Amino acid sequence: MSPTETPVRPGTSSRLRVNGIDHAISLDRDRSLLYVLREELDLTGTKYGCGEGECGACKVLVDGVAVRSCMTPIGEVVGRSVTTIEGLAIGTRLHPVQQAFIDANAFQCGFCTPGMILASVSLLARNPHPSDMEIRAAMDGNICRCGGYLRIVEAIQKASQTAGGAGGGPP
Q1: What is the torsional sign of CA 132, 163, 84, 13?
Q2: In angstroms, rounded to a whole number, what is the distance separating the alpha carbons of residues 154 and 143?
Q3: Strand partners of residue 26
């Protein structure tokens, strides 16, 4: 068994790749990706917000595309690569979007920040230099209850200007 795999538990039927590590899971179709990440894999950076796919707090990347994990059945992500906020940094080096959020003070309470950052990473991977309007459109499905939207847009703009593009690094 490689060091990047978890042992197979009784009753498991598949493996889920999260942040580059394979995890043995059961394919109970009633469970959401969010549930598995938080309750089974103890990756609590992904937040439960509304549970209805409206707030964006639960966003993760699936094959590099931002998805709402509260609405994603676990069976839909088997065989694909899932990246959570915990998987963006490389060691102690933050992803450029994470660093841009810090530099722009783009959070207050921080609850929405993981979903905002992952949505931003997905946007910048598709469009390394988005306009202000494109940023606002891409972030439309993410709610910041503290109202830090101007700093969030500023952070995404800063990240788009980093050397090598903010789409660099994991996932």
Answers
A1: positive
A2: 16
A3: none
Give the SS3 label for residue 123. helix
> Given 1.10.150.120, 3.40.50.12780, 3.40.190.10, 3.10.20.30, which CATH number is that of 14-87?
3.10.20.30
Give the tokens for residue 93: 């080096």
How many angstroms separate the CA atoms of 109 and 94, rounded?
20
- pLDDT of 7-36, one tens digit each? 444 444 788 999 999 999 887 767 999 999
CA distances, 102 to each of 18, 110, 140, 141 (Å): 25, 11, 21, 21
Threshold 0.85, pTM exceeds:
yes
Identify the CA nearest to 76 among candidates 36, 39, 42: 36
